[in-house]
Amino acid sequence: MDINVVNALPYEDFVKLFGNVVEKCPLISAAVWSHRPFKDLADIEAHITEFIHRLPDSGKEGILRCHPDLAGRDLQSGTLTRESQEEQSQAGMTTLDSAEFLQMYRLNSEYKEHFGFPFVICARLNNKADIVHQLSERLKNDRATERERAIEEVKKICSLRLRNIVLSEIQTKL
Ligand SMILES: NC(=O)NC1=NC(=O)NC1=O
Fold this sequence. Notes:
It contains 10 helices and no strands. By secondary structure, it is mostly helical. α2 (about 10-20) crosses α3 (about 25-30). The chain is globular, with a radius of gyration of 17 Å. Bound molecules: 1-(2,5-dioxo-2,5-dihydro-1H-imidazol-4-yl)urea.
């Protein structure tokens, strides 16, 4: 995708295209539009990262709270966003047996009870064994450490979603 095309987008189209690179947080892309013209995709990503970094702890926790649980109620009810549906199914969340499903439910509940925000991990970079291991391990973190750790995962998800958008735009032009 030509960065000049992106730079020429009115903010409505920019937010339509990039609004879900951070799950259910279109505000971030709507805010980042102010920083155009962008040098390239990495520049857009850098501005998104900077916006998140500058948020107070409550803002970072707010971003985490916008993420659906892995193998949670949104997955069960079919109300995940397209991106989350793809990511969660790729990580094996749609093929859990009843014991695995219960384990995820219990670990997610324990994590949420402990931290006050949901466990977030970049599902595309992990399989279900990794996810269970990470959930169990990260439960031991203190809140500040875990908040930053989870935000790092949000940035990985964002980076992969940005690349997917560019790739799918290029494919539509081929
Ligand atoms: N709680 C989560 O980590 N959710 C998710 N991670 C992803 O990569 N996609 C999701 O929906």
